[in-house]
Amino acid sequence: MTIRQNVRQNATLREMLAAEYALGTLKGGARRRLESWLADDAALRFAISEWQDRLNPMSEFATPEQPSPEVWRAISKQIGLKKAEQQSRKSFWLNLREDLSFWRGLGMTSTALATVLIAVLLTRQPEVAVPQAPMFVATLTNEQAQPIALVTGDAHNHKMVIKVVTRQAVAEDKSLELWAVPKDGAPRSLGLIAADGTVTLPMPAGSSPDSIPLLAVTLEPKGGSPNPNGPTGPVVFKGAWLNI
Fold first, then answer.
1. Higher pLDDT among residues 229 and 62, named by residue
2. DSSP string of 113-145, one letter each residue
3. Residue-wise over 72-95: b if at least 16 C-beta within 10 A, else e?
């Protein structure tokens, strides 16, 4: 199944892409590709229009905020104003944390998007098993900025629900493993997730965005990483863990 066919048939994925398009976080080739579908996809046009109607009033309440030095450094690095630091000196997980510092500069709009997205899933997708009163949320995307999974966390019941909205092709000898990436220290495994559908996992104490700003999924050997100290496979999708 092509990506376009998936968007046509998967209402949840269509809503997530429309939300990111309306918010402006869908960039580059992914944005141009979606725009090329609009002429003959009435459902997608309607979804984008609805999201624009929802999000535009929010701008009236947004107060000006000076970007942090981390944001400016990230922008400078992205457009090549400064020579990139030697990546060989950095671990892959440190790079993830540095990427996160840029995106968290957009925290107000990201949290607003996450809040409205949860509302849509609760009202339009009754089959999606999400907590009654989710406290935390993350939209996990791949390298092409395609939404792969929605993660919601319920601090009261110590549970998190992972809804995969774009089915993943995973070999029989591989597993997808979810990790909490703390501000400092090694990533912590939260458990295995399915290549499709919904999985509920226990949410350990201390899993709030204050201490765990990022969630990531890696492709591991069957049954999960054999290394007790962290992942062994590549990161396949990731996203900021936010309060709502």
1. 229
2. HHHHHHHHHHHH-TTS---SS--EEEEEE-TT-
3. eebeeeeeeeeeeeeeeeeeebee
| Residue 77, in any domain of the structure | no
Euclidean distance between CA atoms 233 and 231, whole angstroms: 6
Q: Decide if 193 is inside a domain.
A: yes
Is residue 157 a part of any domain in this protein?
yes
In this structure, which amino acid lies at residue 19?
A
Domain annotation covers residue 91: no
In the chain, where does DSSP find H-type helix?
Answer: 3-9, 11-23, 28-37, 42-55, 69-79, 92-103, 107-124
* pLDDT the model gives residue 82: 53
pLDDT-derived band at 56 (thresholds 50, 70, 90) equals: low
Which two tokens mark 10? 């998967």
For residues 203 and 138, the answer to whether their CB atoms sit within 8 Å is: no
Residue 11 token pair = 């209402």
Provide the domain count of the chain: 1
Instruction: Answer yes or no: is pLDDT of 182 > 90.
Output: no
Domain that holds residue 234: 3-61+98-243
Residue entry with tokens 């376009």: 4
Residue 218: beta bridge partners?
177, 235
pLDDT digits (tens, 9 = 90+) for 140-172: 888 887 888 989 898 888 999 999 988 999 999
